Amino acid sequence: MTDRLFDPLTLGALELPNRIVVSPMAQYSSEDDGKATDWHLMHYGNLAVSGAALVILEATAVLPEGRVSPRCLGIWDDTHVEGLKRIVDFAHRPNGAKMGIQLAHAGRKASVAPPWQGGDALLPGGGGWDIWGASDYPYPGRVTPIMPGEEELETIAKAYVDALRRAEQAGFDLIELHCAHGYFLNSFLSPLSNTRNDAWGGGLEGRMRYPLEIFRRLRAAWPQDRVLGVRISGTDWVEGGWTVEDSVVFARALKAEGCDYVALSSGGSSPDQKISVGPGYQVPLSAQVRREAGIATIAVGMLSDPKLANEVLVRGEADLIAIGRGMLFNPRWAWHACQTLEGTMRVPDQYFRCHPSMRNLPR
Ligand SMILES: Cc1cc2nc3c(=O)[nH]c(=O)nc-3n(C[C@H](O)[C@H](O)[C@H](O)COP(=O)(O)O)c2cc1C
Fold first, then answer.
1. Ligand 1, atom 10: nearest CA belongs to which residue?
2. Looking at the domain covering 9-359, what would its CATH class be?
């Protein structure tokens, strides 16, 4: 049987009424050391009643130095739980969405200004902080990161697990480990950023070791039936960099450790990346990993045409479809997709009179 956009999916204990996911998108809107604000409540609250089955909160830093910008969301302190719980509690009202959170550490790409302030590197003393990478090899144009030794790797690993416990207190249904876009864990995977010659570097096995170690600890700390997935960059789009074949090997190893899904983004490790961007441009990465590693995948990237999003599922190239910018542009994307594809979905009781077609949908 083929899957379609408005078919339900059960993943672990998670029952999703359709295949639409709001992709994690940084809001750069914390005002007080990583705490969630009214912006986050309004933004995620709106998306939680958008008809998407699952909303994944933005990259949320497990340590203060793991923020991309000073305004990024954090989960390194117990005081972060309250603001996050407020969002999840709202989303869990009837006809709301399941809520995920992306646990992140920006590594050697941390400490920059928010995009609308130029996105330039911020130095210690100038609003920024010391940054960390897999190696002391900088992202071109940025300062040299500190290479963690055994003790520091242990501290960072513990920070991930502590963050997970806070996410559990806040009530999240799902955790996504951020291993993409050149950030800390991705910097271990990619040969473009991992130049270590100890057990945490070298060949593919050594480069996968630290991200797998983090995954293993999270899996052990998160209830076994609760969904734990990983977002990866399926390729660096650079010759000599991480490839989709490497992604298949990594996805197989993750699956063996109890990973529920892999989300296939790409790039971010090098400014030399050459990407042919277009509708569905990352879908082949999802298709290959799903086929060859036998794991559920989320496809993402310019999938805002509902017919294309549906076809990706029908062709068996992904299990879920994440929409990013399309959701910011049109938070009712799922309703429009439902009309286009003649699917069925639930809308909040408060909104059911908004359009004649909505009255026909089961509530
Ligand atoms: C404003 C914005 C913020 C983003 N922040 C994150 C993030 O926190 N974590 C992440 O993995 N990807 C992030 N992304 C990437 C998106 O999740 C998504 O993969 C990308 O936008 C491609 O999908 P789209 O074509 O549907 O927008 C961000 C994208 C945008 C536009």
1. 24
2. alpha beta
